[in-house]
Specification:
This protein has strands at about 25-35, 55, 70-75, 80, 100-105, 105-110, 180, 185, 245-250, 255-260, 260-270, 270-285. By secondary structure, the chain is mostly beta strands. A hairpin with a 2-residue loop joins strand 11 (about 260-270) and strand 12 (about 270-285). The protein starts with about 25 loop residues before the first strand and ends with a strand. It has one domain. Strands 1, 2, 3, 4, 5, 6, 9, 10, 11 and 12 form a 10-stranded antiparallel β-sheet that branches.
Length: about 290
């Protein structure tokens, strides 16, 4: 409510007298927001879960969720952004969760760390859940409308992805992510379990070989992919990939400014501009 009791929309500018500002100052934009992926576990552990995936695109949000509502941009207003880092892989136990990404009051939850046979620790809850370790240790659950659960079985589980659960495509394989309709890039794939578990499409890292060679592969940067798991021969799990924010809007609507503390770029796509924020925390605005 405004101070005079008139309802206004979220993101709509308001004048000093509590009345809506001119409609020409606002426009709608699409976005895909992805959190950092979880790190892979150790000792025949599970793959890291992908970072949470929230999008206005036709692919919808992770975990089978519906598409988000478009973002209402008001020219001259500043909008805070945080791009979540990937969680570290473990050299002795369970992988760490990825960090959250935030934008326009929305949070994409960091991916769950993969479980470990050391101490029998389960995969962690996250945007997508971390995979369970060998010997059927529990996998982590995903977050509603962001991602799926990790896989669980006697041979280790892949991390969950935005598009499917771990182990869907085979034992130890990370769940596939989703391809953004904004820029046609696949993101938020789960990490693979030890013994060469394949990472999910969308940046999930492959698990290490049975003897620790090749080593586990990290989730791809700016996809929120989960890290691959380590074996039982001294090879640690790999880190999850950093998250990202993609914004698509009509170029004629305004000019974006990417503020201090953020790393990003813009590219033209037909009549639209695609802004991709790849790191940091700070503010963006349009003029």
């Amino acid at each position: 409510m405004s101070r005079y009791g008139q309802r206004t929309r979220v993101g709509q500018a308001v004048s000093n007298f509590g009345q809506p500002a001119a409609a020409a100052e606002a426009f709608a934009a699409d976005f895909t927001l992805v959190a950092g992926g979880g790190g892979g576990g150790m000792n025949l552990g599970g793959g890291g879960g992908a970072g949470g995936y929230r999008s206005t695109g036709t692919e919808g949000s992770g975990g089978g969720g519906a598409a988000q509502s478009k973002f209402g941009v008001v020219k001259g207003a500043s909008y805070a952004i945080v791009i979540g880092a990937g969680g570290a892989g473990s050299a002795s136990g369970r992988g760490l969760n990825g960090s959250d990404s935030t934008f326009f009051g929305l949070t994409a939850t960091g991916g769950g760390g993969g479980g470990s046979r050391n101490g029998g620790v389960a995969g962690q809850l996250g945007g997508s859940g971390g995979g369970g370790a060998t010997d059927n240790y529990a996998a982590g659950a995903g977050t509603a409308n962001q991602g799926f659960a990790g896989g669980q079985n006697a041979f280790g589980g892949g991390g969950g992805g935005a598009g499917e659960a771990g182990n869907t495509d085979g034992i130890g394989q990370g769940g596939d992510g989703l391809t953004s309709s904004l820029d046609s890039v696949a993101r938020a794939g789960g990490g693979g379990a030890a013994n060469n578990g394949v990472g999910g499409d969308g940046g999930g890292g492959t698990g290490s070989g049975a003897a620790g060679s090749p080593a586990a592969v990290a989730g791809t940067a700016n996809t929120g992919g989960g890290g691959g798991s380590g074996s039982n021969s001294g090879s640690g799990g790999a880190a999850g990939g950093k998250g990202v924010l993609v914004i698509r809007y009509a170029t004629s609507s305004g000019t974006i400014t990417i503020g201090a503390g953020l790393t990003g770029s813009t590219t033209a796509s037909g009549a639209d501009t695609i802004a991709t924020i790849t790191d940091g925390s700070g503010n963006i605005s349009w003029a």
